[in-house]
Amino acid sequence: MKQPAVFVVLLAALSATPAFAQSDLQPGFDKRLLQLAPAQDKAERCFLRRYDAAHLKARPKQRVEAIALCVNVERMAPEEKGEIVRYIYNFDFSAKLKGKPEIAKTAGECGFSHMPPEEQRRVSGKPIWCGIDCDGGGVTVESRKDGAELLVRLERIRVSSECGGGDDESKSFDITGGDDDKVFIIPRTSVEDYRAFVGK
């Protein structure tokens, strides 16, 4: 059956629309974040890498036996009329270190909920910063291979800590980028595999 010309034109236009395009992105939204996950409430993308014995033997200074990062999106609806919708990109970071039985964990936010146009132009070609509150450091991330893997660079990140102090704060410590723990290529995994790794 021959399709009407109008239908064919409409279908072609829809096919050409970017997968993550949408009309309610807040002014100043850091569009680099769309490389990590679509701006949709509860969208979630996870990455996990476990290093085998041969890899670790060849790199005796590497302390990270496994590393994972999961990005989850939160849609913040306007509280008052005239306010804009905001999409917050939160992240969970986890790592298994040599000599430590527990999985080290922390969480923070990637990118910015608002960035002036001039700042967006300045950082457009730079990695995305995912940071921890209270001067807890963080990592930079870059999406590669159409989202199939994440390039993560580590200088310092505080794990197993909370800003409020208390028992959790006393158990917190920093993971720093050592000789073989500065750059990680982490393949995408399912949310279920990530949760199994961190024990959720």
Describe the structure.
This protein has 200 residues and is α+β, with helices and mostly antiparallel strands. The chain has one domain. The protein is 18% helix and 37% strand. The protein is built from five helices and nine strands, in the order H-E-H-E-E-E-H-E-E-E-H-E-E-H. An eight-stranded antiparallel β-barrel has the order 1-2-3-4-5-6-7-9. It is elongated.
Radius of gyration, rounded?
Answer: 20 Å
Strand order of the largest sheet: 1-2-3-4-5-6-7-9
**Residue share in helix:** 10-25%
User: Helix/strand/pairing class, anyone?
Assistant: alpha+beta
Jot down its keywords.
elongated; alpha+beta; 5 helices; 200 residues
What is the element layout, followed by pairings?
Layout: H1 5-15, E1 44-50, H2 53-58, E2 64-76, E3 86-97, E4 103-110, H3 117-123, E5 128-131, E6 137-144, E7 149-159, H4 167-170, E8 173-176, E9 183-189, H5 191-198
Antiparallel strand pairs: 1-2, 1-9, 2-3, 3-4, 4-5, 5-6, 6-7, 7-8, 7-9
